[in-house]
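FAQ: What does a ligand-bound record look like?

Like this one, built around cobalamin:
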Amino acid sequence: MVLTKDVKRRVMEVGFVSSGISAPNMLEDLPHGPIGSVCTLRLPKDELPTAKSVILMSYYAWDPIFNLQVDSAYFRSRERYTPKVQTENYQLYYEILKNKAWTVVNYLRKKGFESTLSLGISLKTSAVRAGLGCQGKNTLLVTPSHGPRVRLISVLTTAELDTDEPFKEDLCKDCEKCVIACPTQALEPYKIKINRCLTYAAEKPYAQDVTKDIRKLEKKLIMRPTPNSYVECWTCIEACPIGKLRQKHLK
Ligand code: B12
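The answer part, i.e. the structure of the complex:
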């Protein structure tokens, strides 16, 4: 269909490195609801009930600084848990993703289709269904071209687009480099213990389920450029050999 081709061309023009299309009725069994105390995942039909297509897009995050997170001064204080003040936090890659995805949303809206972006659905599993890659042993989306060094966002639209075939291959094969590299042993192949992940620890400075040994490693390993910012851990991504060659020019 011409529209599907046009949308995919537009997605690449704004700087995404791959895209795939699925439909809300093919994503109804996606993980949804509360993910520990991290977030609540939604289904496409909760995000845009009239949607006919879900466009999954991946952005190449080639440098650790894409993982920069900055919180307003109150965010890291205990006050956040009884907030009396407005708090804000920004993650660099999310800002880039949203910025680029809005141009795709606006493109579709101009054509008369109701459209919105979503970071609230399960992006990894949706991306597998849309053919972008497999869920690897680090539990992340691993793509054939950029490995897990991609960040994901989706656009939901009432436009009826051609869907892609789900990705079937397991790209990890017998490699377990990510599992071995994780400094807190948070990973078992295809599974993560969320409260051992350094990103969870950094995000939740007062969480009771983070043990002292993890807090010690967090202090040692998490980069903190300013008192209100930190760079999320990406050791399991860095360890992955798939797509690593692309980073050579940066060394
Ligand atoms: C919650 C969350 C977290 C939590 C929990 C992680 C998790 N795996 O759930 C924490 C804070 C720990 C976290 C950490 C990180 N995150 Co995060 N996170 C998310 C979020 C919001 C939802 C993830 C999710 O779907 N969880 C739900 C669970 C059910 O999914 P799952 O882990 O895939 O679980 C499956 C498997 O574990 C498997 N499984 C479970 N049990 C078992 C048992 C057996 C035997 C088997 C075989 C399988 C199996 O089945 C489950 C269902 O399919 C997404 C954004 C989004 N909206 O999707 C970003 C996201 C997944 N995170 C991302 C990133 C980059 C990270 C970090 C690298 C930190 C960073 N620098 O940003 C680390 C990596 C940690 C890791 N290896 O997973 C990216 C991943 C990009 C990619 N290439 O996939 C996403 C997609 C954000 C984005 N917009 O790009 N994250």
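Follow-up question: can I read anything off the structure? Yes, for example: The chain has a mean pLDDT of 92.
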